[in-house]
Specification:
The protein has a single domain (3-120), classed as Ribonuclease iii, N-terminal Endonuclease Domain, Chain A (Orthogonal Bundle), CATH 1.10.1520. By secondary structure, the protein is an all-alpha fold. It has helices at residues 3-24, 30-41, 43-55, 61-73, 83-102, 104-120.
């Protein structure tokens, strides 16, 4: 499947899981929910998460391949963002989209690790 299609799915899946996590954490004010969502789901956060996953060798070869499918297909970053950050974030979303279809328990596990990483960062 096309990496950008996987990223499209992964973006929605990851954001839903982050929103669920924040609400289950007891946050009820919309402004606070939004600020916290950005902390976990920004392109910068996603890029740092995928870099952490790659540095700690937590990903399988198939998962790295899914990441690269999204990262390598990205050509247009927003003006205020570095291209590399945008590519890494798109690759992260591609990985999440891939796992949401192939291995949902693994997907949820990696999202849990991502949340823990961002919490202590």
């Amino acid at each position: 499947m096309n990496g950008l299609v996987l990223a499209y799915l992964g973006d929605a899946y990851y954001e839903l899981e982050i929103r669920r996590y924040l609400i289950e954490s007891g946050i009820t004010k919309l402004n606070e929910l939004h600020k916290n969502k950005v902390k976990y789901a920004s392109n910068e956060s996603q890029a740092s998460i995928i870099n952490h996953f790659l540095e700690t060798n937590i990903l399988s070869e198939d998962e790295i391949s899914a990441y690269k499918k999204g990262r390598n297909r990205t050509h247009n970053a927003r003006k205020q963002m570095e291209m590399v950050t945008y590519q890494q974030a798109t690759g992260f979303e591609s990985l999440i989209g891939y796992l949401s279809l192939k291995d949902e328990p693994r997907c949820k596990y990696l999202i849990k690790l991502a949340i823990e990483f961002i919490k202590v960062r």
